[in-house]
Amino acid sequence: MHRIKAHLKESPEVKAHPQRIIAGFRQHFHANEFLSKTMIFFLARHKRVLFSVFSALAALCILASCSRPPANRVQGYVEGEFVYVASPYAGSVKSLNVQRGDHVKISDLLFTLDSEPEKSARDEAEHRLMQSRSSLEDARKSKRPTEIESAEAQLRQARAALTFSEKEFARQEKLLQTSASSIQDVDRARSTRDQDRQRVSQLEADLLTTHLGSRTDQIAVAAANMKALESALTRAEWDLSQKRQSAPEAGLIFDTLYREGEWAAAGHPVVVLLPPRNIKVRAFVPENLVGSIHSGDTVRVTLDGTSSPIIGKVSFISPQAEYTPPVIYSRESRGKLVFMIEAVFDPKTSASLHPGQPVDVQLGP
């Protein structure tokens, strides 16, 4: 106080109005002294209340530290891998047999596209195949019965002529020995006999041919053509079947992307299917825990609104970090690394999970 008074005496303003300055300073000092005494009195009067408040705050801090999640518990979410069912061919949606939220079994019909062009192509391929089969059967058959009878009759006639020509040749040879016939007559009889022999041989071969079918190479060509048409019919039937798509496996109809009457392009999905086995949980594990996790380890997943956790198994551990610090891996930056893991469940349990649902994953036993 004495130092302040000495400093103020040296000030020009104090020298001009010394009494006014000193009076204002004393008033300010007494006001501060009053506030200090009032604060001390308040603290002494309400020390029990303040002690209770500080005790409550300390208790809250202790409870907050106790409720901190364990180190081996991480957050995650439910992920679904959808099956997009589509037709490889374009067409208008003729019928949509399912709705969003339906549960289907394997081979249940999902939708049908207009199939008139494919039906026409199938019918054409079927008729062509029938024609080819008839041609092959005809090529393998022998001549008709009447044609065979005609060939047999011609052969009998030729044998009768041969018998006569052989007798005539023998008679002419005897007459030549008695000079009753000329050499010219003998030669003529020999020629007639030889011609009749060749005629009989020819008709015998023709008769044998009538009992056979077409030539071997012609039959082979007809058989190959029939096989090609069978393949064409199989392809036409497959094309027709692709206009009706069924469920490849049991699951939930997650969404339908077209309505009846709309045009669906080739390869564009019409129905989105979610099989239970495609539902899994994804979580991100810190770098200091990923080394203690192995494929097949048991995890406990807790969902909001459920009293007990569900049990699953680790099916995948990502070999790659989700976040890579720049330049170097220091101790500080390693703490920022996380690795994705996936856990799967039995189909009955998976059916109760919903993609996007947040979960807590408890690692280890």
Task: Write down the overall geometry.
Answer: rod-shaped
Order of helices and strands: HHHHEEEEEHHHHEEEEEHEEHEHE
Radius of gyration: 54 Å
C-alpha end-to-end distance: 72 Å
Helix content: 40-55%
How is this fold's topology laid out?
Elements: H1 2-10, H2 12-16, H3 18-45, H4 47-66, E1 73-80, E2 83-86, E3 91-96, E4 103-104, E5 109-113, H5 116-140, H6 145-177, H7 183-210, H8 216-241, E6 244-246, E7 251-256, E8 263-264, E9 269-274, E10 279-286, H9 287-290, E11 298-303, E12 310-321, H10 331-334, E13 338-344, H11 347-350, E14 358-363
Antiparallel strand pairs: 1-10, 1-14, 2-9, 3-5, 3-8, 4-7, 5-6, 7-9, 10-13, 11-12, 11-14, 12-13
Helix pairs in contact: 5-8, 6-7
Describe the structure.
- By secondary structure, the protein is an alpha+beta fold.
- The protein has four domains: 2-66, no CATH class; 73-80 and 276-363, Elongation Factor Tu (Ef-tu), domain 3 (Beta Barrel); 83-113 and 244-274, RNA polymerase II/Efflux pump adaptor protein, barrel-sandwich hybrid domain (OB fold (Dihydrolipoamide Acetyltransferase, E2P)), CATH 2.40.50; 123-238.
- The chain has eleven helices and 14 strands.
- The protein has helices spanning 2-10, 12-16, 18-45, 47-66, 116-140, 145-177, 183-210, 216-241, 287-290, 331-334, 347-350, and strands spanning 73-80, 83-86, 91-96, 103-104, 109-113, 244-246, 251-256, 263-264, 269-274, 279-286, 298-303, 310-321, 338-344, 358-363.
- Strands 1-10-13-12-11-14 form a six-stranded antiparallel β-barrel.
- α5 (116-140) packs antiparallel against α8 (216-241) and α6 packs antiparallel against α7 (183-210).
- Mean pLDDT is 80; it is low at 61-67 and 325-330.
